[in-house]
Request: fold
Amino acid sequence: MLWNMLRRFTLLLASLIASSALVFLLLRLLPGDLAQAKLGIYGTPEALAQLREEYGLDKSLAAQYLSWLSGAIRGDLGLSVLTGADITQELLAKATVTLPLIVIASLIAILIAIPLGMFAALRFRRWDGIATSTVSQLGIAVPTFWVGVILITVFAVQNQVFPSGGFPYDGWSDFPNAVRSLVLPATTLALAQGAVLTRFARSATIDVIQQDYFRTARATGLSRARALRIHGMRNAMVPVVSVLGMQISTLIVGAIIVESVFALPGVGQMLLQDVNVRDYTKVQGTVTATTALVFVVSFLVDSILGVIDPRARRR
Amino acid sequence: MMWNRNLLIGASLVGFNVLVAMLSLVWTPYDPLEIEPALSLTRPSTAHLLGTDENGRDILSNLIVGSRATLITGVMAVVICMVVGVTVGIATSVSPRWIESPAIFGIDIVLALPTVLFAIVLAAVYGPSTITAIFAIGIALSASVAQVTRREVNVVLTSDYVTAARASGSSTRRVIRRHILPNIRASLFVQASGACAVAILAESTLSYLGLGTTPPAPSWGRMMASLQQFLLIDPIFPLWPGLAIVITVLGFNLLGDGLREVLDPTLRESKH
Reply:
């Protein structure tokens, strides 16, 4: 068990280093460099040289990466090339919108998907089970931004229940409005994720129902639902939890889309703006921090899997 | 076997799309790029079945032409991910352990990288374009193709007939051609169809975010983004491009599911 955790942790560290190096290299493949990008046509050779020295661009690639990495480990992602603002600070400020959005959306998705998937599995030959599974199949094909636009149409334009977008200027100190402005975005994200999750919950439950131990449980007189609750739940949860771990990366991408639909000032919106104005150091900081989050979450999910499924520990 | 419901619906939807894309090469109701300011944002009518956009361009014609870009993106991304994924998958499975272990590790990393995020980084470097989007999506998807291929190949490699072939002196290349490829072919078709759906959804997302297909080429994702602004005038405008994306993606998903059910007999009875 301990050995296994240690192995996973080493793997986590290695993936963090490899992915940050990949993002670093991709952004350094640019024609020209940051100094040229910043100074543009005003770039006299002297000014360029001075700026390169300031940003450490005159050192070798490896040295640049190492100095960036040592900063990143201490939580310092450097400064924006364009505005000179502290990237870590900006990222943390934007995360106060994005992280709640992701957490609320995952909770809604789990609450919808797991009961729905089990229901579809228990009744997989009946019309209502088939209907549930068809709706989830349709849900996978629907682009997230379209769901968002439909929700805006129904709940913000035709019935003005929730705001169509934006976030209160005061942020979370205006708590009621902050929550209100996250309802539609979180629901949008949850529906997209929930559809995928429902299908996994359904097929995992069907697998359990067809096991011998489930038939034995039924033979002792338990109803299907009760047998599933007592004997099947923990087994059915294993694939569902592992999918949840993989979903974190689609959740983050979904958050970028949803923030764009609802004009939410979160990490995704910031990233898109930085890409448009070519603020490379900020793009690098944001993407690396986001991928790091993905890796850490999947590490945690793997560890949780070891707890609910004793077989996974030995793998 | 021919009457599998998913396969039938999926194949019809995909077939319909291909027909529309082919039709767009020779005929569209109107010139999709023709600007007619007097007809700005009209509702569906007999002249313009789905109405017109803010520049008075016929929405139906734009959707029809957009299907071409969508299909091309899907197919090209699938070609990239299948070629890269299957090659890497087979090569690592038959390699010695000191090559295999780091390769699995690399696949795991690419697998964990969020596809669209990766495409956004590439768009930041090379500027937004269809080619960048296709390349990013293709490479990102190739990791999951490689993973599935490896799983399938490893099953074949431990089978008795491969051991027998090896014992009778077959080279690795011959084993791959004669035994591995024919045995994993069915799974590859299923993979390709599923990957196509993911690629089309990813491309429409990138275009919606302004990081994919650039104007003036019509693209469903970008049509969605621009028509969304006129939601207050009439919510019917952004409905059309979204519907087109849903139909196409659903088609490829059902086709993949149907193929899997038909090609894998154990699934036919129980799960569907």
In short: Chain B has one domain: 60-266. The mean pLDDT of chain B is 83.
